[in-house]
Amino acid sequence: MKTLRERCIVGLTNEMEESIHRYNVVMDIDESDKENKKCMDRFFGDHVEKRNANPHPIEKYESPAWNALAERNELDIRLFHYVKKLFKEQKEIIESYAESLAVE
């Protein structure tokens, strides 16, 4: 978990546009550039269906299938909850970094 906190910018598929924006900030990609904007519009434009590229069935919470999956994937679930928390925490850091780039 320390490695994620100290070395990674995390993203979430259900926050894809915000996640890509954060990566762009950190990699100093100019989102106002014509070609970059065209690329972003291709994936996040007004007429684009936003969905996970790999749909999966959603099991009812605490159903037998859900419980079986949760038991087998306990560490993944813990990691997911940690990444969701870290995603929220990184918002201020990324915004501050973006502001410092704008000043330069």
Can you describe this structure?
The chain is built from 5 helices and no strands. It has helices at residues 2-7, 16-26, 34-44, 64-72, 74-103. With 104 residues, it is an all-alpha fold. The radius of gyration is 17 Å and the shape is flat.
Strand content: under 5%
Report the strand count: 0
Largest sheet: none
Low-confidence stretches: none
Classification by helices and strands: mainly alpha
Shape: flat
Helix content: 55-70%
- The value of Rg in angstroms is 17 Å
Task: Give the key terms.
104 residues; mainly alpha; 0% strand
Layout: helices, strands, pairs:
Blueprint lengths: L1 H6 L8 H11 L7 H11 L19 H9 L1 H30 L1
Summarize the structure.
Helices cover 64% and strands 0% of the residues. With 104 residues, the protein is mostly helical. The two termini are 32 Å apart.
